[in-house]
Write a structure and sequence with these properties.
about 270 residues, mainly alpha, two-stranded antiparallel ribbon
């Protein structure tokens, strides 16, 4: 199963390289269901894996002048603050058992996986509809910053990142394209830098919370994911991003539904 997990880690990197998002949406289920990592710890590992991979991809995009650093700061600062606070103080406050419905006991790991599944379904809808949204945006117009909305969106994405370990690229990219009228390719590069900063700082919040980290697993998975992002960046020059995004969106939708069904009706020891 480890070999399967590391192969899937390459797919995580390819996803980030191709469409600037989707990395964490794949990482958490792979860690939980393939590598048998506890869901709460998997959200922490996801922050490090996706953050490191996105940083490599962001640097590659910066070399090609596909990063707007002004937006990285405007969006990134509230997002980084929110994710750090969430990982450091909010996640540890969540009780081990939240509530029960009949024989179903909703524990902290199950609740996080269900929340993650809802995020996946939201992401999939955003990806499936992205082709239509793109046509409505005139990229010839000058970039215009809606500061209050960008700050608010940054904070919301940071909170979400902290809770479920999702980088939030599927929320960041539409926000940059719509709120800042940013061209798609520039939005992807900028998104990678924002994801990297807030994910890695969120992971630091976990280290201070005293989590026991399996550095061998984490390091190996991250290396394979970084190999994947180089493949993804190369493929992005040959494959139309919008077509791939829509196909990936349908895959994410199926995965989200699968997690909800599995956690509610087919519980096992791995997620308790």
């Amino acid at each position: 199963m480890e070999i399967v997990g590391y192969f899937l880690a390459i797919i995580v990197g390819i996803s980030l390289g191709l469409i600037g998002s989707g990395g964490s949406i794949l990482t958490v289920p792979i860690l939980v269901y393939v590598m048998a990592v506890n869901p709460v710890l998997a959200t922490a590992y996801s922050l490090f894996i996706v953050g490191s991979t996105a940083l490599v991809g962001g640097i590659q995009n910066a070399i090609q002048k596909k990063v707007d650093f002004k937006t990285v700061l405007i969006f990134g600062i509230p997002s980084i603050a929110a994710v750090y606070i969430t990982r450091m103080w909010l996640v540890p406050l969540i009780p081990k058992e939240l509530f029960s419905i009949g024989s179903l006991i909703v524990t902290k790991p199950i609740a996080l996986m269900l929340l993650f599944a809802v995020v996946m379904i939201m992401a999939s809808i955003s990806m499936i509809k992205s082709g239509k949204k793109k046509e409505q945006i005139d990229e010839s117009l000058p970039m215009k910053y809606n500061y209050p909305m960008i700050l608010l969106e940054g904070s919301v994405v940071g909170l979400l990142t902290g809770l479920v370990g999702a980088g939030g690229g599927f929320l960041i990219i539409p926000a940059l394209v719509i709120l800042a009228r940013m061209p798609m390719k520039l939005a992807v590069g900028t998104s990678l830098f924002i994801i990297a900063a807030k994910s890695l700082i969120g992971f630091i919040g976990d280290l201070q919370g005293g989590e026991v980290i399996d550095w061998k697993l984490l390091g190996s998975f991250t290396v394979f994911s970084i190999i994947g992002i180089f493949i993804g960046i190369l493929l992005s020059k040959k494959i139309p991003g919008e077509k791939l995004k829509k196909g990936f969106g349908w895959f994410v939708l199926i995965m989200g539904i699968y997690i909800i069904v599995k956690e509610l009706f087919f519980q096992n020891g791995a997620t308790h």
